[in-house]
Amino acid sequence: MQNKHTLFSKYIENIKKQIKKDKFTFLVYVILRLFVLYSIISSITRKDYESIFVCILSLILFMVPSFIEKKLGIELPSTLEIIILLFIFCSEILGELQCYYIKFPYWDTMLHTVNGFICAAVGFALVDILNNNKNIKFKLSPLFLSIVAFCFSMTIGVLWEFFEFGCDAVLHTDMQKDTIVHSISSVTLDKTNTNTPIIINDIKEVSVNGEKLDIDGYLDIGLIDTMKDLFVNFIGAIVFSIIGYFYVKNRGKGKFASKFIPKLIDKTDSEHDIEN
User: pTM of the entire structure?
Assistant: First the structure.
């Protein structure tokens, strides 16, 4: 009974800390959580167990920022935390359950751009924290920090595309969305075997096993979607890398950049908060 009371007290204390940190961030967290809980109830009534799993996964992911701050001692700026929460909600609840990936053609592109930006921020923060650690004997330049942040973001983007390809190949999903194109260029069609690309333009219909597909063009299987995702991830990573470069160049004085860069929690400040 005492353990339950202690856990409840810690939960309430955590909520108070979140409210004290930023009321708007806490409000966003509560609203998104209520939407997810509503989706769970709706999924239960429909006996849609896959949607229930996605909702539960979203609730778990919502706790990641709090876990990072509590267990790793890294403070996430309120702006970055809100972006992360909205990203999770837009990708899992709106994207998957509400089919926004299908309803809005650029929904996936937008999320991959934001993902590139967020991952660059995380990669930048990891190196920047080491850079400011007194126990580390080397100091990295602003340019090198930006390059590491960019490479970290692109690596995460590539690994995610590997994951999508694996799911499509093994589980027969369609995470790598197909694209309808009206022209192709392929050396496979070259009967002379001289590596000459054969170009076919103005494709208006395609047949598979003698059955015509009503798509008004040729079906590209995931390649264009993958390259587009990596390209917008590249854009997001570049944008943040530039922001991070000038942030370090100005010795952390940039107010805009500081809204996106996590920092180590100052133990003296946290102890002061506990005493109060």
Answer: 0.82
